[in-house]
Amino acid sequence: MAYMLRYLSTASWLSLTLFNTATVKADVPMVLERLMTDGKGKTKLNLALTYNNSGSGTLRNTDVVIKTLTLRHGLTDQADIYGRGNYIHSQERISYHKKYKHSFQNVWLGTSYKFKPDNATPALVGFIETAFEKVRKDSRVFKSWVAGITTYKAIDPIVLIMSGYYSLNLPRKDGQDAINPGNTLALNPSIAFTVNDRVTLNMGVNWTNAWPHRTNNRKRSRITSTDLQLGVDYGFSDNDILNVTLASNVSGVQGTSLRFDWLHTF
Questions:
Q1: Residue 194 β-bridge partners
Q2: Domains in the chain: how many in total?
Q3: Is the bond into 157 cis (omega within 30 degrees of 0)?
C-alpha cells in the first residue's frame, strides 16, 4: 500500500462530451499533458481514481482505492507550480479478519520547469516537490522530497518518453517510533502511438528500487519491483482528455492497479 501512494458524475460528463464536434487533440499523450500547462496563466485540473489489488497466497489480500486531485498553474511559459492531494480507502483481509482504513494521506506542493522544447534534440522537463503527510499519531512537513526529469522525442506517429525520479525520505517520528523510510529510485521508459486525432495508445515499464525501511531497530530488506503499463488516451475536446491505464506487477509483490484520469484545461 505504501508503494501505491508513491505514483463529475461519469455518466453525465460523458453525455455532454461524446457529441462535442469541436476539433480534438489526443495526439499529445496525456503523460506529457500532465507535465506542464500550455503557458503562462493557464490552469489544468487532473482528477484520478486508482484501484490496486495485491496479496500473498490465500492468507492476505488487500484492496486499495486512491482518489487524487491535482491543480497546476503556469507562472511563465517555462515554469509551473502545482499541488496534489491524496485520499485513501483500503480493506485488508487476513485469514478471517478484515481491517478498514479511510483517511487523508498527503498533500504535495511542487514546481516544474521546461528546460528545452522538443526540436532537433529531445525535450527536457524537470520537477521538485515536497509533502505534508498525515501518519498514525503525527503529521510531518518537509520530510519527503522528490526530484525528477522527463525527456521525450516525437517521431510522428510515435512519442518516445523516458522519465525518472529520486525520492529522498528523511528520518521522522511517529509517536514513540523512530522511522527511516529509505529512499527510492524509479525509471519509467514508455512509448505512445497516435492512432488518430482522438486516440493515443501507451505502453511502458516502470522499475522501482526502494532502499531498506527501518522502524526503531527493525530493518526491512531492499525492494525492487517492475510493472508493465498499458494505457489509452481519448480526447473528447481540446480541453478534456480521459486516460485509462492498467499496470501489472511482473516482478515483486505489488499486485495490479487500474487508474482512471480526467484532465481538464481552463
A1: 200
A2: 1
A3: yes
Question: Which residues lie below 8 Å from residue 54, measured CB to CB, with a gap of 6+?
Answer: 1, 61, 62, 64, 249, 253, 254, 255, 256
In terms of residue numbers, what domain contains 124? 2-265
Q: What is the largest CA-CA distance in the chain?
A: 62
DSSP state of 31: H
pTM of the predicted protein model: 0.84
Q: Domain holding 176: CATH number?
A: 2.40.160.40
Compute the C-alpha angle 19/242/130, nearest 5°.
145
Q: What is the pLDDT of residue 137?
A: 67
Residue 254: name the closest of 50, 53, 11, 84 by CA. 53
Alpha-carbon dihedral sign for residues 182, 84, 163, 188: positive
C-alpha cell at 206: 516502470
What is the mean pLDDT for each group of 10 consecutive residues in the chain (266 residues)? 39 31 55 89 96 81 94 96 95 83 91 95 97 79 95 94 96 84 96 93 96 88 93 92 95 87 94
